[in-house]
Amino acid sequence: MKYCPACGKEGLQYPGNRYWNCNSCGFTLYNNVAAATGVIFFCLNDDKSRTILVEERAMDPGKGKLGLPGGFVDPDERAEDCAVRECQEEIGITVSEDKLQYLTSMANTYEYKSITYKTCDVYFLCEVTAFEMFRIKKAAVMQQSEVRRITTIDIRKDTDVQQLPFAFVSANNALKQWQTTF
């Protein structure tokens, strides 16, 4: 921003990348982060490997790369409600909140149309059986504007996660944490 939205004068300051401040009228606008969620659907296999459900993104940022069901938290919405809503919207799967288990939160950078947004991504786990994972994958109804396809990936060793081409570093980091925690 170049001009103050309150008085219209030029010369906004942006100290510490935290807020805009107008020296002319004293206006202050804080640059708060946006909250977002992601859900790691997983099942434990008989051979001790794990299978996760991933999306191929149909839009930027990260078009063609992998993502997890999730998205931005709406005003006055809890993170849990956002996770449930985004699973329904993106892949057509109804998840009850009691199936979600908090995993972690991660700082992230979301670049969209030449604007950089800082986000706090809240990740949840949703453990399902192998049969439920199969049903989810087959029954998923993708939101075509956001999701190109849905697939599952077997995770056999820790390095498997590091090699996955996720659109956002926070998803890779959340999966790494999940691997070491559970």
What does this structure look like?
The protein has 182 residues and is of the alpha+beta class. It is 23% helix and 35% strand. Strands 3, 4, 5, 6, 7, 8 and 9 form a seven-stranded mixed beta sheet that branches. It has a two-stranded antiparallel ribbon with strand order 1-2. Strand 7 and strand 8 form a beta hairpin. The mean pLDDT is 91.
Short précis:
With 182 residues, the chain is an alpha+beta fold. The protein has helices at 79-91, 130-139, 158-162, 169-181; strands at 19-21, 28-30, 34-44, 50-57, 66-67, 70-72, 101-112, 115-127, 147-155.
What is the averaged pLDDT score? 91
SSE arrangement, N to C: EEEEEEHEEHEHH
Please count the helical segments: 4
Structural classification: alpha+beta
How much helix, percentage-wise, in residues? 10-25%
Main beta-sheet strand count, sense and barrel state:
7 strands, mixed
Radius of gyration over all CA atoms, rounded: 19 Å
Distance between the termini: 44 Å
Shape: elongated
* Number of β-strand runs: 9
Q: DSSP strand (E) fraction?
A: 35-45%
Q: Unreliable segments (pLDDT under 50, ≥5 consecutive)?
A: none
